[in-house]
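Troubleshooting log. The previous structure file for this entry was overwritten by mistake, so regenerating from the original sequence record. Sequence copied from the archived sheet and checked twice against the printout by T.R.
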Amino acid sequence: MDTVTENDHMKDFWMFSWWYTIPAVSLYVAFVFKIGPRLMKNRPAFQVKTLLIIYNITQIILCAYVMERMRIFAQGDLFDFANCRVHDDMSEKSLEYYDISTYVSMLKNLELFDTVLFVLRKKQNQVTPLHVFHHASVLVLILLYFRYYRAEGTFFPVYLNCFIHVLMYTYYTMAAVLDPQFMRRFIFLKKSLTIMQMIQFGLILIWLGFQGTFCNVPRIHIYYFSFITVAIFYGFYDFYQKSYKSNWTSGRMPHVPMRFQIYFNWIINSPTHYTTNPIGSQQHPNCITSTFLLDSSHITIGLCQYPYWAKAIFQLDCNNIPIGL
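Regenerated output below.
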């Protein structure tokens, strides 16, 4: 039997409805920008390390599962940019497509929890317009494609994004469970993931060009997808330039700088230690109390700048430095 009833085919259609998507996006934006920060204003940050680890592992498993389902479904045509097959009938193949798309929608809705965790942990500086725009716009994109144009080719950008997310959430899990000092060996992965994100958006734009040329994709889908892809690409590119490229050449911090008062024994070429926030400490003639800025390339004290080998001089305990990453 190659057909199914319309009721079976439409059983989860509420997930691809404007009546669900608009309230969900509105509530998400309101919570992360207004409601959440107001609720957390006079409360301590939630300690959700265990929940964070569970969430990251869940994301890895779900992304890998969706990737495998798509690979089996497409049967070798997953990377065919001109794949124009549409699954909008009552066949078993269309039902399988609909089933996979439902998992994709659940996955993208679950990703909103990323921002909720930022708010609950009082890391509001990470709730950037780019971050919120990315998550909110994807929900609308999922609705446009999986309700109005159920094309098999749509699985390519989703597959690509899931692959990036498997790597990203793996890194997040490692950062949550491993010793911070040990994790510094993998700091290069943060830069690599940003580059991979930009490559992903470049490939999606090429894919959109093929889809718009060879397939009967509604123009609004192409325009909207192209707009949000270019916008997010620019956001990642701007972040990359400010965080990894221009700041290395200018000697500024390649991540978020954190200024704080530090007290240390300054004896050139002699290993010493420091204590942060020295209250009532007696200052030695060879000691300096100053505003201190640490980054991965320089140690800045006042207007003087010392190369990173100064770490050997000051014996910096990096685990106690709030670098704000």
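The chain is about 60% helix and 10% strand. Archived copy saved in two places this time.
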